[in-house]
Amino acid sequence: MIKITFPDSSVREYNAGITGLQLAESISPRLAQEVLAVSVNNQTWDLSRPITDDASIKLYKWDDDEGKHAFWHSSAHLMAEALQELYPGIKFGIGPAIENGFYYDVDPGTAIIKEADLAVIEAKMIELAARKESILRSDITKADALKKFQNKGDEYKVELISELEDGTITLYSQGNFTDLCRGPHLPDTGAIKAIKLLSVAGAYWRGDEKRKMLTRIYGITFPKKKMLDDYLVLLEEAKKRDHRKIGKELELFAFSETVGKGLPLWLPRGTALRLRLEDFLKKIQRRFEYQQVMTPHIGNKQLYVTSGHYAKYGKDSFQPIHTPEEGEEYLLKPMNCPHHCEIYKVKPRSYKDLPLRMAEFGTVYRYEQSGELHGLTRVRSFTQDDAHIFCTPDQLKSEFLKVVDIIFIIFNALDFKNFEVQISLRDPENKEKYIGTEENWERAERAIVEACEEKGLKARVELGEAAFYGPKLDFMVKDAIGRRWQLGTIQVDYNLPERFELEYTGEDNQKHRPVMIHRAPFGSMERFVAVLIEHTAGKFPLWLTPDQVVILPISEKFNDYAYEIAKELNMQEIRVQVDDRNEKIGRKIRDNELKRIPYMLIVGEKEAENKEVSIRRQGEGDKGVMSVADFASLINNEVESQMNQYQ
Predict the structure, then answer these.
(1) CA-based max dimension of the chain
(2) Smallest Cα–Cα separation from 466: which of 488, 493, 496, 484?
(3) Please, where are the H alpha helices in 253-300?
(4) Catalytic one among 174, 384, 491, 548?
(5) CA-CA distances (angstroms) from residue 602 to 34, 177, 612?
(6) 181 catalytic residue (yes or no)
(7) Which pLDDT value is given to residue 316?
(8) Catalytic residue flag (residue 340)
(9) Catalytic: 114?
């Protein structure tokens, strides 16, 4: 007999070898129908895998991320099985579950898989799923695994197997398809009821531009057709909200192949929006006693060797800049923190100087693969709303909590009400990925957990998601249509102060190491603006929008009056423009609705005579007539009301 501990801390005894599915059946038949995977001692397993020792378990359903992961991982294998039948000789790279659905990178040989072929692949997947084929896990030695895939001529799987340790390799089989995989998977394919393959793209093998270009097929599946129908509606809404589309319509930003891939150009309206966000955060930071600093866009290579960033990010950075001086190398900075460490070292520090809060909107550079670039969300040049807090160990928790307060202020002001908090810790099975001592890591991880408990944050713990120098707290925001984005982040770091030999003199007159907190409430200005565009569909809050008012004269005769109003509103610091095109008023209204300008003021003969304006609210229609002074008060009161929400 073995003891099984459930999430409510209850303990039951079962025969050794019981599976997750049998555990669910022992609780209720309905649970057994809904369960998709099981956690066994914090590791996600297949429901069909025997549990042979005492264990703590949790059963995952569709509403759990782990349940969706198993469902979509199995769907990736189902698609691969269909491709194998349709394209004999096809070879397979990797096929993971992703946040929404799955993909598989494949090498179809001489065949070309196009968007038009997806319907045929879908039909084959539906046919295979209906067979309810069992998905079977088996252990295999490294030698046998290599032999198996060498005989198939699948060089991609052979390469992956060659990097694995013997004794850790497993295969999954269904029907005539077998794949190298660590799982977990569904018990069989029968639960996959609704299937949609979404797109075909190119992807270099292992993200390396020097390797072969494979075909990547994206798809999504659900246990019910209605779920798929609802998702496709959201997908259409997401297309309408695409920040690349809206950014072009609103003239916020652009890209130029001549300037270079992944290097955004901020246009006047986009710059105004971005600067207003920066000013907003600067005002908050002044309240929390931050000091602004500025650092160069480049640094000596040795700076990043010392910090550890070169070892971790060197391959993802732009190539070193060689100067005329022999042996001198510089890098476009991939991070701001090493520069801030050097600012800390400019003069001796005392415990009386701490906490020292140093903030910079610092632009950094990463050489992202061209196939990974995507609008503003994945670029090669981006500006972090970066700050580093140097404090004593005793100050760490209070400083950490103050950063949480700042993030809440920002989310409240921008209507990000739905978010999750994630504590990202080391991978306990792969600690060599991280720098620093065991003691420092334990102190840093404990500080984050205790801060979350004190703040009452129900944080999810994710192993293996920490930064290489320290654990972090990540804020995952759900936007208006339910998509999840990582925005704010706070990281605790005992390691960079060690590497840069940072010191302060304590009350005991002895030298001590400060603790370092890295924080970026926006994350990066580029990514944050992209998320904000898609969250609001380009309808920004009145305090933030680049253009608050547009004046529409009904004919050229009233242009002078329109500009007179614009001058008066400008004096009130209201952002206004005049649409003086020789177009009918209906056309002007339609065009400016598309520009998402909150207020339209229509002026004609009656308005000019009475020194009034006719008001339209974007998306709401007519709002009556009032004097210019009253309208200015209306605007300023609305802005003030919005700003007071986060004061």
Answers:
(1) 92
(2) 493
(3) 268-287
(4) 384
(5) 58, 67, 10
(6) no
(7) 74
(8) no
(9) no
